[in-house]
Amino acid sequence: MPDPLLPLRFVLLVFAGLVNRQQASVIDFLREENRVLKEQLRGKRLRLTDDQRRRLAAKGKALGRDLLDAIATIVTPDTILAWHRRLIAAKWTHAAKSKPPGRPPVMAKIRELAVCMARENSGWGYTRIRGALRHLGHIVARSTIAGILKANGIKPAPERPTSWRSFLRANAGVVAAADFFTVEVWTARGLVTHYVLFVIDLATRAVEILGVTPNPDGDFMQRVARTLVDPVDGFLRQKKFFVIDRDSKFDARFREVLRASSLEVLLTAFQAPNMNAFAERFVRSIKSECLSKMIFVGEAMLRRALREFVAHYHSERPHQGRSNDIIKPDPASMPAEGRVIRRERLGGLLSYYHRRVG
Question: Model pTM?
Fold first, then answer.
């Protein structure tokens, strides 16, 4: 009786032959390509990294010497197999680690804690840090702490200045900061760069757009300065410190108006954006969430986008720096139960989800 699977076996045999011929053609092409690349070296020695040697050794061992002899073109089969033997030796050979002489090194965790305490507390001396570490269960000598701080370039407490970050955190309630960012706007004259000046309250993260102009000249800055220090509704009327960078637009006349209102103007260092990190973070937020996703035709369109984002920023957007709280939440839109409603701004570019009762 004829085998009913004979036709199927014949088809599989033909298919396997076709696959083998195709694989042989691919291998032949790759071998020739390797030869061409090797000829480009013109006798120069091919330098391989350790990682490349490991990869070739792992693949080459699985093929065997005979097949390697037929296909290897970059290096000889003996070289590949020698690399593989060294891999095996490295896996099973463990050099004995001798104990270093002297006292054992201070634990990395203790070093990190000591450095962290010194940087976050400018008034803490060696003894104070030693006491804090002891409270955490780490018994460390005072001289050891002194050595740790010295190795990390941290001066003793009397000579250690208060960090900029610590100063801003301690005085956030009376500190505000300002900065510019630019937006390109299409006008009848083509693309025109518009400068947006804003101010931010470091304690609440509240923001106010002070002005939008393609020409932030001295007169513009004078008007902004007088608005900021207005005794009735000026943004800085209850502030003591005002952080700005060394941009030439914050000229001497601008700073003089602020100082006349008993404000201390703090200038950041050159090329030090982290010294005005709150303002820099707002710029990143408004650009990534809004401005970079729009094409502005006319200044009015830009002003509308700024108004919508600031409203969203204050009353709808959770802030990670404030434990995901909203700066100015609307209690009426925060019931515990009810249908979830989406509020859209700028055509859905900005979204806010809240519950509506009924």
Answer: 0.58
Is the pLDDT at 254 greater than 60, yes or no?
yes
**Highest mean pLDDT pick, 51-60, 249-258, 271-280:** 249-258
- Counting Cα atoms < 13 Å in the Cβ hemisphere of 40 gives 7
Percent of the chain exceeding pLDDT 70 equals: 73
Please give the full DSSP string across 193-261, using - where no structure is assigned: EEEEEEEEETTT--EEEEEEES---HHHHHHHHHHHT-TTT-TTTT-SEEEE---TTS-HHHHHHHHTT
Name 40's Cβ contacts closer than 8 Å, sequence gap at least 6. none
In angstroms, the CA 87 to CA 107 distance is: 33
| Whether 212 contacts 194, CB under 8 Å | yes
User: 241 pairs with which residues across the strands?
Assistant: 175, 264
Place of tokens 């090329």: 271
- 186-220 per-residue burial string, b: 16 or more CB within 10 A, e: under 16: eeeeeeeebbbbbbbbbbebbbbebebeeebeeeb
Q: Residue 72: is its pLDDT beyond 90? A: no
